[in-house]
Design a protein that fits this description.
The longest helix has 26 residues. The relative contact order is 0.10. About 70% of the residues lie in helices and about 0% in strands. It is mainly alpha-helical and about 110 residues long. It has six helices and no strands.
């Protein structure tokens, strides 16, 4: 059986929708403030978070979900923090290693407010 490009694109879109829904459900369960947003507001929050994660080379569901949660807890532009730039811009390590380094950098960074 050979799949056409259109079919593969359809599968990819379905998987993305399912993943976004799972992230939103998880965030609703873990963050009461997020749960109080409308579905449209939740989607408007998640989409840029996922785009930024991908911009920095994170592609696994674990990393994308982590990024979304950190964005909610800290602030939408948290990735601009100067202490995080060395980790975000170093694409050499594997994704799990980069995610571990990012988590460590977030925990040790000096945050205002």
């Amino acid at each position: 059986m050979i799949f056409k490009t259109e079919q593969m694109n359809s599968f990819r879109r379905m998987a993305e929708i399912k993943f976004r829904r799972a992230v939103i459900d998880q965030m609703r369960a873990d963050h009461p403030g997020f749960k109080s947003l409308t579905t449209e507001q939740q989607q408007s929050f998640i989409d840029p978070a996922l785009a930024w994660a991908r911009h920095f080379g994170f592609t696994s569901e674990r990393a994308l979900a982590f990024w979304s949660n950190v964005t909610w807890v800290l602030q939408p532009q948290w990735h601009e923090h100067v202490d995080l730039q060395p980790v975000l811009n170093d694409l050499a390590p594997s994704e799990p290693e980069r995610l571990f380094r990012l988590k460590t950098a977030i925990e040790t960074a000096q945050w205002n407010g």
